[in-house]
Design a protein that fits this description.
By secondary structure, the protein is mainly alpha-helical. The chain is 72% helix and 0% strand. The chain is elongated.
Length: 214
């Protein structure tokens, strides 16, 4: 019985957390980060102030949660397959395109851009808690493939930037900047496929691979 009760309370807590994050994101967009109070967020989300403060003691902690959840993927615990860079990058690319296609990702960037002059710490949070960890996961994959001899990538930072940039420059940035911009699922799949092919061709292994630590 205790396990059932614990599971129930965990589910309720997760549901309330989701309501709080959704309400906070909407208010940050409507009113700005500075004019949005935790009390107003509690009212909009329909939870008590005590519940909100228990989960998020400050607006900074709440914004960090928005960043973390915006950059999370449902299957992020499943690593891309090793030994075949085309298959691996195809999975990474599809995940990235799906991530960038979420409404909350666009909202997150709009909040950061709007508040950057007065609250540069929001941009730092977005970079350190969201973009950089995701970038590091792609970098680590390419480094592992380099060390295994599947590809020859002397500059994994550059290669990861190139790959992610080819996708985001087509499927995300125009959506953020141009009202009504839409990219079909078929076009997104084509963009990912071309990015994979480009990276695979550019960094194809052509001989013995030296360690990047040498």
């Amino acid at each position: 019985m205790s396990r059932v009760v614990t599971t129930y309370h965990q589910r309720v807590a997760q549901e309330k957390r989701a309501l709080i994050v959704t309400a906070a994101t909407a208010l940050f967009l409507e009113l700005g980060y500075d004019r949005t109070s935790l009390a107003r967020i509690a009212e909009r989300s329909g939870v008590s102030r005590a519940t909100l403060f228990k989960q998020f003691p400050s607006k900074a902690a709440l914004f960090d949660a928005i960043v973390t959840e915006s950059w999370s993927t449902a299957d992020e615990e499943d690593p891309p397959p090793a030994g075949n860079v085309v298959d691996g990058l195809s999975i990474i690319g599809r995940r990235y395109a799906e991530l960038l296609g979420r409404a909350q990702m666009t909202d997150l960037f709009r909040i950061v851009i709007a508040e950057l002059p007065r609250f540069p710490e929001l941009a730092h949070a977005q970079f350190s808690h969201g973009k950089m960890p995701y970038f590091e996961s792609v970098r680590s994959y390419l480094l592992a493939e380099h060390e295994a001899g599947t590809v020859r990538v002397e500059d994994v930072d550059l290669a990861a930037t190139q790959f992610l940039g080819m996708i985001s420059n087509y499927v995300f940035w125009p959506t953020l900047l141009v009202p009504g911009w839409e990219v079909s699922a078929e076009r997104v799949a084509q963009v990912v496929d071309e990015a994979v092919r480009t990276i695979a061709a550019r960094y194809a292994a052509t001989g013995p691979v030296a360690s990047t630590n040498d």
